[in-house]
Write a structure and sequence with these properties.
This protein has 94 residues and is mainly α. It is 74% helix and 0% strand. It is elongated and about 55 Å long. The N and C termini lie close together (11 Å).
Length: 94
C-alpha cells in the first residue's frame, strides 16, 4: 500500500499545473521562514548552547506544521513528482 500511495502522490505532483507548484513552493518557503525566525527570536538572550539547541528544536517545527496543515510544498516533496517522469510511467491504473 505504501508503494502504491507513493506512486499516486508522484502522479499527482507530476500532473500539477506550474502555477500551483510555484505557489506551493512559495508558501512552503514562507512557512519555513516563519518557523526559523520564530526560533531565532525565541533563542534571543539565551547564552547556554544546549538550551539554545533545545529551544530551536522545539520551536522550529512550527514551520513544518504550517506547511503540513496550511498547505505548501518543499523541495523534497516536489522531487517526488519526478518519480513517474523518471521511469516514464503514468499510473492510470491507480
Amino acid at each position: 500500500k505504501a508503494a502504491i500511495g507513493c506512486f499516486k502522490a508522484s502522479n499527482h505532483k507530476a500532473n500539477a499545473k506550474i502555477v500551483k507548484t510555484f505557489v506551493e513552493g512559495f508558501l512552503g518557503g514562507i512557512f519555513i521562514s516563519i518557523g526559523y525566525i520564530t526560533a531565532m527570536y525565541a533563542m534571543n538572550g539565551v547564552s547556554a548552547a544546549g538550551v539554545r539547541q533545545l529551544i530551536f528544536g522545539t520551536v522550529f517545527p512550527i514551520g513544518m506544521l504550517l506547511v503540513t496543515f496550511l498547505g505548501g510544498g518543499l523541495y523534497t516533496s516536489h522531487c517526488l513528482g519526478f518519480l513517474n517522469a523518471s521511469i516514464k510511467k503514468n499510473c492510470h491504473f491507480l
